[in-house]
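Q: Please design a sequence for this.
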């Protein structure tokens, strides 16, 4: 029996809902984000959307950006599976290596709702640099305005952020990533001193591979192999060479990069350039080999990637302190070759998935290095980039195993009140840390709960740490100024239709809302009033008195069996 009762004169108007140009917004990724491709030249790019009004259909398209050499593969419009009870939509789009603009559009039935475009999203190659000053540049060089060239290719990227020389590993907390084309003076996150040779190398790789390139730099000027290993084995260690390092450093910046940047973007390999300090200390072959092998093993352990690729430069040239003339140190070069398998894979310090990098000691001369004959300058920085480019060849890219980006934390939303939404982290038991922040870079924490309420026009994102010690961010999500129709309304008790206290969300339904009157609830529309809804699901009873109007698209009656 239908439990819809008509008293006196009833007019029912079936009106098609007409939505205006509601905003749909791409919340993730951000412009210039680059995701590591797999060895089939593809990556699944996560996409998070938010919209202000109800939509029935969302489509996404990737458009390969126009370049002098064609790159990337544009897609057709792809229909996105949408959660009908949220203003947030999580999806993925599979893209081949390239540089793209993402476009999304939304419809309500046949009515166009809105469109948004995000420019410059990449699928390409991601690297972390580690080592000492010829990996990072040097503060003294920076003070002399020796930076290395900017990248000229729009696809060569980094984060301009410096973690600070006194920050311990335990206190390290990277902000939400903001990515830019490499500029000469940028500090390549988390600890690079300048563009150094990496802007030039990025240009060469982008041209050769026809994909975008993203660099991070976790080196530390003056660091020796002993400091790297001791801080890798003990995150509270304070090794000492030219300086006493903060707890857990210098390795801590590499470990944090593996936990944070690699989780967000993926990684092809670590590029290692170090050995000059061990020339000074005359480190013997077996000691250096064992320690470099141990360092690589710890990085694989901490990244949960047993095949994490390392490209090891053969580098030792040093002059200073007790050394009167620039020299190389063959025991360290032999040790580097041992780890790489150049001296035979049966050698005790050999490690698989390591790749031969450039031998840079031979790059010498007044136009190549500074007066100390150690640090590169001018033409030398370019030659260093060219040497790296030579060894990052087709064999390396086909034989190395990349790490792909980690899935984002999922956030669900529901109506909390007439002016606020409740955002809830899905599967919170997966995370050992939950931190909500309402500033764009996620530096300030305002809640560590699994959910937060946001009033109209408020924003927040969550930072989480998973069981593998990886840190991930959600997009910056928000509560629209008006979210009528985004969340279905239900009766919470019997009462009058125009009483806000009987409805979930604490507001009276509109023609945008899907409404359910729950079983055993009796809802009354008073004389001369209008009941508005987009769709009405009748599980309980609706009483209409007097000159009462229903403004609706659809009424779904209670099942005859009920």
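A: Design:
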């Amino acid at each position: 029996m239908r439990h819809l009762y008509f008293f006196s004169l009833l007019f029912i108007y079936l009106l098609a809902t007409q939505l205006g140009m509601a905003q749909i917004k791409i919340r993730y990724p951000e412009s210039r984000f680059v995701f590591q491709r797999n060895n089939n030249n593809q990556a699944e790019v996560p996409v998070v959307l938010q919209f202000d009004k109800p939509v029935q259909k969302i489509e996404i398209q990737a458009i390969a950006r126009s370049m002098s050499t064609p790159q990337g593969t544009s897609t057709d419009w792809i229909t996105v599976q949408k959660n009908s009870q949220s203003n947030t939509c999580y999806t993925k789009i599979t893209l081949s290596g390239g540089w793209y603009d993402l476009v999304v559009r939304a419809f309500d039935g046949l009515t166009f709702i809105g469109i948004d475009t995000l420019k410059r999203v990449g699928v390409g190659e991601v690297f972390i640099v580690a080592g000492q000053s010829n990996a990072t540049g040097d503060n003294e060089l920076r003070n002399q305005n020796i930076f290395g060239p900017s990248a000229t290719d729009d696809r060569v990227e980094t984060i301009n952020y410096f973690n600070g020389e006194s920050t311990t590993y335990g206190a390290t907390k990277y902000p939400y990533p903001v990515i830019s084309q490499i500029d000469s003076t940028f500090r390549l996150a988390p600890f690079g001193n300048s563009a150094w040779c990496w802007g030039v190398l990025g240009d060469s790789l982008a041209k050769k591979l026809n994909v975008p390139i993203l660099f991070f730099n976790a080196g530390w000027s003056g660091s020796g192999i002993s400091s790297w290993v001791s801080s890798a084995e003990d995150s509270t260690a304070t090794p000492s060479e030219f300086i006493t390092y903060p707890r857990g450093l210098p390795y801590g910046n590499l470990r944090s990069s593996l936990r944070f940047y690699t989780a967000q973007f993926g990684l092809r390999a670590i590029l290692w350039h170090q050995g000059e300090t061990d020339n000074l200390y005359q480190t013997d072959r077996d000691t250096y080999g064992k320690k470099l092998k141990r360092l690589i093993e710890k990085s694989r352990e901490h990244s949960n990637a047993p095949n994490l690729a390392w490209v090891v430069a053969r580098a030792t040239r040093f002059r200073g302190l007790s050394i009167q003339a620039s020299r190389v140190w063959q025991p360290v070069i032999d040790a580097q070759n041992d780890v790489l398998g150049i001296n035979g894979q049966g050698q005790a310090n050999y490690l698989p998935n390591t790749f031969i990098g450039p031998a840079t000691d031979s790059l010498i001369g007044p136009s190549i290095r500074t007066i100390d004959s150690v640090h590169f300058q001018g033409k030398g920085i370019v030659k260093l980039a060219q040497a790296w480019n030579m060894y990052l060849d087709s064999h390396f890219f086909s034989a190395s195993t990349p790490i792909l980006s980690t899935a984002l934390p999922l956030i669900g939303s529901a109506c909390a009140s007439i002016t606020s939404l409740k955002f809830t982290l899905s599967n919170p038991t997966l995370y050992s840390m939950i931190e909500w922040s309402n500033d764009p870079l996620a530096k300030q924490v305002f809640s560590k709960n699994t959910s937060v309420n946001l009033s109209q026009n408020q924003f927040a994102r969550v930072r989480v740490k998973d069981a593998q010690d990886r840190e991930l961010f959600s997009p910056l999500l928000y509560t629209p100024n008006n979210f009528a129709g985004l969340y279905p309304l239900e009766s919470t008790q019997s009462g009058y239709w125009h009483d806000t206290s009987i409805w979930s969300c604490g507001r009276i339904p509109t023609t945008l809302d899907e409404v359910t009157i729950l079983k055993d609830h009796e809802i009354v529309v008073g004389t001369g009033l209008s009941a508005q809804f987009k769709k009405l699901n009748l599980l309980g009873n609706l009483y209409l008195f007097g000159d009462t109007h229903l403004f609706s698209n659809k009424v779904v009656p209670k099942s005859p069996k009920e």
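Q: Thanks. Anything notable?
A: The chain has three domains: 4-17+484-556, 123-399, 409-479. The chain has a mean pLDDT of 91.
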